[in-house]
Amino acid sequence: MRVFSTVQSMREWSDSCFRAGERIGFVPTMGCLHEGHMSLVRLAREMADVTVVSIFVNPTQFGPGEDFERYPRVLGSDLSMCEATGVDAVFTPAVSEMYAEDASTIVEEAAISRGMCGASRPGHFRGVATVVAKLFNIVKPAVAVFGRKDAQQLMVIKRMVRDLNFPVEIVAAPIVRESDGLAMSSRNRYLSADERMVALGINRALRWAEARYANGERSARSIAAGIGERISGGGVAVPEYVEVVAAEDMKPVSELGPGIMIAVAARVGATRLIDNVVLGVV
Ligand code: AMP
Q1: Which of 17, 48, 80, 268 sits in a 20 to 30 Å window from 190, CA-based?
Q2: What pLDDT does residue 234 have?
Q3: How far is the CA of 256 from the centre of ligand 1 (A)?
Q4: Contact in structure between 166 and 160 (CB atoms under 8 Å)
Q5: What is the pLDDT of residues 98-126, one digit of tens each?
Q6: Is 55's C-beta closer than 6 angstroms to any atom of ligand 1?
Q7: Cα-flanking dihedrals φ and ψ of residue 109, to 5°?
Q8: What is the mean pLDDT of residues 180-192?
């Protein structure tokens, strides 16, 4: 497995793959890798000839007072996981390698990114779209895999790729959960044992909503209210938003149905967690 920390070395390797006729599959991450990330890697490996993972805690997608400084950085074990999962190359640049001090160009998606996490984290998706555009230009993948856990991010990237004609296929991967239902996240390691129990309530509330839907409930408003009550019931988790939206454009809807997403962000102690479900046909 190759490890690159400069833009130039990463580019040269990608170019050599291209010349050899190999399709690059790409999984962008912020590191502190877990099974969720590895499921994306396995999908990328199925769809491409060689696989690149980037590990970069991107400062521009963190707001003031967010967890950029304390975001877990565990490069050694990340590299072992990548190697064990058959990754061909890891790109792990320093912030100074990715951003010129006077960088003044951004990529901004201006519709899908407005609500939900975009409303509570102003500038977040601008940082995400900008860094992913840069990574696409450096790694030059034929296919890139993103997780449905960050459903809004996935749709922002899809829109960016369509609108700016990036020659890359975007593939969506299912949410990977712990055995008790908690969506895997690098941020789960912030949780104390008590907080983790509380965090389980997020997924439990989403399962409750699915069951209500299967029993005939169709009101988005009443389901969102029920989820909010369930999450905050213990008094420890604070829901940031509960949104019922169309999965393809994140626009709020009033009626539940197939393809409708219920998305939640909540704070458990100091930790911000997100989760979602997409309703099926019943
Ligand atoms: P992150 O390192 O948190 O920026 O995530 C990198 C990629 O992994 C994103 O496309 C995420 O959506 C995806 N990802 C993170 N956690 C999960 C999970 N539990 N299941 C599926 N994909 C995930």
Answers
A1: 80
A2: 66
A3: 26
A4: yes
A5: 999 999 999 999 999 999 999 999 999 99
A6: no
A7: -90, 135
A8: 96
Please, what is the Cα angle at 63 between 158 and 108, to 5 degrees?
A: 30
Question: What residues act catalytically?
Answer: 37
* % helix, strand, coil for the chain, step of 5: 45, 20, 35
List the domains of the chain with CATH numbers. 2-173 (3.40.50.620), 186-276 (3.30.1300.10)
Q: Residues 268, 194: contact at Cβ < 8 Å? A: no
Q: Which tokens hold the place of 79?
A: 């590299």
Only one residue has tokens 């975009």, namely: 118
pTM of the model: 0.97
- 223's enclosing H/E stretch is helix 220-232
**pLDDT digits 0-9 by tens, 114-171:** 999 999 999 999 999 999 999 999 999 999 999 999 999 999 999 999 999 999 999 9
Q: Does the structure show a pLDDT above 80 at 235? A: no
